[in-house]
What we know:
alpha+beta
Amino acid sequence: MPNHLHHAHLFASNLDASLKFYQEMFGAEILADLDMAGARNVFLAIGQGRLHFYDQPLISY
């Protein structure tokens, strides 16, 4: 049985720009776009793999 990456979690400070990039460059399909724990969470499908994006503002120290 071939192996593949099931999904990865990514944080994005500009979620809409990130989604646009993956949709245009890799043909990503949005599977879910919802609010969880006060943050926007988007699940993308790319081939057999999945990306899970969290909307995360930039943090300055």
